[in-house]
Specification:
The protein is α/β, with parallel strands linked by helices. The chain folds into 2 domains: 33 residues; 101 residues, Glutaredoxin, CATH 3.40.30.10. The chain is 50% helix and 20% strand. It is built from 5 helices and 5 strands. It has a 5-stranded mixed sheet with strand order 1-3-2-4-5, sandwiched between helices. Strand 4 and strand 5 form a beta hairpin. Helix 1 packs across helix 3. The termini are far apart.
């Protein structure tokens, strides 16, 4: 027979596992919102005149992890449905970092067509990230 204490401990563990599973699904959903950066895809998006988001992130970066659900929510907003989002991996795409003059992970860059409309570094404020995305519209 299980004691209350043992049962509560097991329920707590199950809750933590559920939270971890939910967070992994959130990360997968965010990753699906963004395309891996390639020069050809970026140039095609620029030629189409669509607003563009470049998200420079690293898998180990806590700020990037904090930005991910904010960006995912904003990308689901009808105002931003035409934004083409690209992910640049901070650790493996050093040539792209040089191209965009990026010094740190958690950098967000917005383009309006071929012009850079704004950028932020290490911002986790939903309102200011939303304002940054709006600059590309």
């Amino acid at each position: 027979m299980l004691s209350k204490r043992h049962l509560l401990g097991m329920l707590g563990l199950l809750g933590m596992l559920g939270l971890g599973l939910a967070l992994s699904f959130t990360s997968a959903a965010v990753a699906a919102d963004k395309k891996p950066y390639t020069a050809a895809a970026f140039e095609a998006a620029q030629a189409s005149g669509k607003p563009i988001l470049i998200d420079v992130s690293a898998s180990w970066c806590p700020t990037c992890k904090a930005q991910a659900p904010i960006l995912s929510k904003l990308m689901g907003d009808p105002r931003f449905r035409n934004v083409v989002a690209f992910n640049v991996d901070y650790d493996s795409q050093k040539d792209v970092l040089r191209k965009f003059n990026v010094q740190r992970q958690s950098t967000l860059i917005v383009f309006k067509g071929k012009q850079e409309a704004g950028r932020s570094v290490a911002d986790t404020n939903p309102a200011s990230i939303e304002a940054l995305l709006a600059r590309g519209l």
